[in-house]
Amino acid sequence: MDEIKSLLEALIFVSPAPLSLKKIIEVVGDGFPKKEIEAALSQLQMEYEAPERGLYLQEVADGFQFRTKPRYSEWIKRLKKISPTRLSKAALETLAIIAYKQPVTKGEVERLRGVEVDGIVRTLLEKNLIRILGRKEIPGRPILYGTTQRFLELFELKDLSSLPSLEEIKALSDDLSESETD
Question: pTM of the entire structure?
Fold first, then answer.
């Protein structure tokens, strides 16, 4: 088990994007059965949850990726001299509509938001949070948009089914409203 864990650790570490189970099996499948790979991944996740570790292994964007623990973010920002990705409220609203309604046209997003979203869509495309999926088969053939793997990574989602349901969002909103009145 130690050999497969070390191998998986190395592969995930060098991968520039989340490494999918399918890709792992493609790379090491001849030497190790799928169940052994899955068990090793699960064990690695548990080991990296230890409080003395600076990293954790997260399943995100249909793959596995090492992430730094949030408590070290200030030092990492100093080292990398980076500022976190910031999105305006309008950009977050637009991104949420695209995430939940995809594939969706810009016109459909504009109808839901009630405002023009050309600039916001351009920004979301530049930040690689949305992508063009194709064209809708209606007159004018408008472009269809959807989210990217980068979106899943940024919001720490395993896949689109990990998005909170509308009921969960409403419950959170109600909880926040109640705490503001206390």
Answer: 0.67
Phi/psi at 53 (5° precision)? -90, 145
Q: What burial class does residue 57 get, using C-beta atoms within 10 Å of its C-beta: 0-12 exposed, 13-18 middle, 19+ buried?
A: buried
The structure tokens listed for 119 are: 């600039």
Question: What number does CATH give the domain 2-78?
Answer: 1.10.10.10
User: Which of the 8 DSSP states describes residue 62?
Assistant: T
Residue 156 has what pLDDT? 86
User: Which residues 6+ apart lie within 8 Å of 152 measured at CB?
Assistant: 60, 61, 62, 158, 159, 160
CATH number of 89-181: 1.10.10.10
Residue 146: strand pairing partners: 131
* 10-residue mean pLDDT series, the chain (182 residues): 92 95 90 92 95 93 93 86 78 94 95 94 94 94 95 89 80 67 54
In the chain, where are the structural domains located? Answer: 2-78, 89-181
